[in-house]
Design goal:
Elements (H helix, E strand, L loop, with lengths): L4 H4 L5 E6 L7 H10 L2 E4 L5 H4 L9 H12 L3 E8 L19 H18 L6 E6 L14 H6 L2 H13 L4 E6 L5 H16 L6 E4 L2 E3 L5 H10 L6 E10 L13 H19 L5 E6 L31 H9 L1
Parallel strand pairs: 1-2, 1-9, 2-3, 3-4, 4-5, 5-6, 6-8, 7-8, 8-9
Helix pairs in contact: 5-7, 10-11
Bound molecules: (3S,4R)-3-hydroxy-2-oxopiperidin-4-yl beta-D-xylopyranoside.
Length: about 325
């Protein structure tokens, strides 16, 4: 019987995993989630296209099952996500003629969505990714030109946090993004949060997705990006960690070689050592899945083998699992 990961990190930070609802249908998958993780993140079913596919027509069948799983097992549940440019239905942004709606209409829809979803899981979801992937460092104001932005500018981000805070001021409200180790992106995110804080917008935490690979980025870059946000007094969550074995989209391996296994194990260990140096702000480290059969990296960015997580396709512990334990 192998050691429990959540126990190994007890008193340091919560150890989390994303999961898909099909994992709730098989006992071995469920037991692995329950044993090793004290935080869980529904991977898709809390997204807008899942919970409100048509205006004011909410469907909580899948979301209810996902959240209930975590609650029943005494796990913290991270809510992912309220406002995003992807996996969001087009109706949110358009009128009956297909034209973009006014700010007022957009905000009414946003508020209705945030309020309805957050109220349903009040007391069950402890932290929400209020906005996801809003940064584009190539823009002068650092903000992605999503439909949200095209209609409302930066203000939509303020509204999202204000609406969420009004529903439940005790829930931790996060801003989540990828490639936050990149200096320009990290700076753009930092600048945004500084502007929000100056206006009194209630942001509690920064989420670093941390979809990385064996090749990129460096540990130093990751550590710098964690340290950078300490100045803002925010909590830090690592929200979507995985380590791809590829450096570019054209590669595809038949097998997971012993050499790759060892390199991945070494990197996981060093990475967790970084997180452990910053437990003053890092309070949750969540992997984007528990096992290599349930990883989005087998479909994104292309369909191919990949082995980014701590357990293999048969739910057996990988060298990466053992090396993470050694980091403590
Ligand atoms: C991914 C899911 O894991 C996939 O199942 C889905 O097809 C696409 O989205 N950043 C995020 C997550 O914030 O929501 C994404 O999840 C992975 C990248």
């Amino acid at each position: 019987d192998i050691p429990s990961l959540q126990d190994a990190f007890a008193g340091k930070f919560l150890l989390g995993s994303a999961f898909t609802n099909d994992e709730l249908l098989t006992e071995p998958d469920k037991q692995l989630l329950i044993k090793h993780f004290n935080s869980v993140t529904p991977g898709n079913v809390l997204k807008w296209d899942s919970t409100e596919p048509q205006e004011n027509v909410f469907n909580f069948i899948e979301a209810d099952a996902a959240v209930a799983f975590g609650v029943q097992n005494g796990q913290q549940v991270r809510g992912h996500t309220l406002v995003w440019h992807a996996q969001t239905p087009d109706w949110v942004f358009r009128d009956a003629n297909g034209n973009l709606v006014s700010k007022a209409v957009l905000y009414a829809r946003m508020q209705n969505h945030i309020q309805t979803v957050m109220e349903r899981y009040e007391g069950k979801i402890y932290a929400w990714d209020v906005v996801n992937e809003v940064i584009d460092a190539s823009q002068s104001d650092g903000l992605r030109r999503s439909l949200w932005y095209q209609i409302a500018g930066e203000e939509y981000i303020e509204k999202a946090f204000e609406f969420a805070h009004a529903v439940d001021p005790t829930v931790k409200l996060f801003i989540n993004d990828y490639n936050t180790h990149e200096p320009a992106k990290s700076q753009a995110l930092y600048n945004l949060i500084t502007r929000l804080q100056a206006k009194g917008i209630p942001v509690d935490g920064v989420g670093h997705q941390t979809h990385i690979s064996l090749y990129y980025p460096s540990l130093a870059e990751i550590e710098s990006s964690i340290i950078k946000f300490k100045a803002l007094g925010l909590e830090t969550h690592i929200t979507e960690l995985d380590i791809s074995v590829y450096s570019d989209n054209s590669q595809s391996y038949e097998t997971f070689s012993d050499e790759l296994k060892q390199r991945q194990a070494n990197l996981y260990k060093s990475l967790f050592q970084v997180f452990l140096r910053h437990t003053d702000t890092v309070t949750n480290v969540t992997l984007w899945g528990k096992d290599d059969a349930h990883t989005w990296l087998r479909t994104f960015p292309v369909a191919r083998n990949n082995w980014p997580l701590l357990f293999d396709e048969r739910l057996q512990s990988k060298p990466a699992y053992w090396s993470v334990l050694e980091a403590v």
